[in-house]
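Hi Y.,

Following your request, here is the sequence exactly as I used it, all 270 residues.
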Amino acid sequence: MAGSGDVFEITRFEVGKRVRGTLVLTGALVLLIALYVALFPSIESAGIDLDAYIESLPEETRRAFVGNVTTITTIDGYMASQFYQLTWLLVLGVYYAYAAASSVASEVENGTLELVLAHPVSRSRLVVGKFFALVPSMVAVNVFSYVAVYVGVDYIGEYIDPVDLFALHAYSMGYLLACASVGMVASVVFDSARRAQTAAIGSVFGMYLVDSLTFDTDYEWVGDVAFTRYYDVGAILTEGEVAWSDLAVLVAATVLLLIASAELFERTDV
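Below is the corresponding structure, written out as tokens. Let me know if you'd prefer a different format.
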């Protein structure tokens, strides 16, 4: 009977296929971080009351593009609102949902799934193995980004709390895995990679919008389904507040969606 070793073999093989993409993504993020950090001194010395401008924005706009940050004239508030709010919550969330959505659906579409399943490996283990293959990429992105932010901020003579920065990146693993689990569901539901990718991207982007549009309104409860509601980059980086209950929600959602993916794939005719 196929054992846990099969999962690790699948994961190891899939990780090898993702090395190039991970390197490109990490390199792009490091360059983006360098750009944002380099711009901060000129923004700080501009003499413009940017905080007043932020306060004048509509609530949904402020929530979407700035988050819960109250000031962007400090380096931690600036990085949380101008970099992490969009890059981590939206761009990386969409990226890993897209990557997960491609994993199984592309095998079905290309006709290579039958060759994989010809080996003594269950469909459930195939799903789990492909899902776990995304973890090293997430770790690499977070580690190199952490170093780039800390070194860059120190280089321009500013200070950012290394513990809070670490907490922000460590916590993001829960968020990114949750987004990837959405993509995995789409990957086993659709037999076309493009449809699965579109569904995954639309789901993550839709959650981002729902969270922004319903936050602090009479319909705030609707946004409780959005993963972004449970990852407050501003609170973590500027105040050092880690909401463990919110992280538990993300972990639980990931586990449930991964189980659902495995069960759906077991019952799908391919």
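The mean pLDDT is 87.

Thanks again,
Q.
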